[in-house]
Amino acid sequence: MNKTLLTALGIGALIGGFFTSWLAPKVIAWYFEPPVEIGVNCRPATEWAMAKLQMLQGLGLIAGAIVGAIIYFVVMQRRNRV
User: Fold this and answer.
1) I want to staple 32 with a disulfide (CB 3.0 to 4.6 A). Which of 15, 42, 56, 60 is the partner?
2) Is it the case that residue 17 has pLDDT exceeding 70?
3) DSSP code of 51?
């Protein structure tokens, strides 16, 4: 049961992180748009920054998965030798 619980928590955390990374930039961009034109609008800059954040989060996810897989296979090979 302990392993099942940890797996469910891990999957839930990944899904929650995915949806937060997807929705949060849209909410932040909406928040930074002024209700009336005041001569300065931060929305385009905010949308650009959030798009870069999402891209880097995706790259970090892929890089982390690759590093994790490499570590897993190295550990498994060492266990099989012993």
Assistant:
1) 42
2) yes
3) H
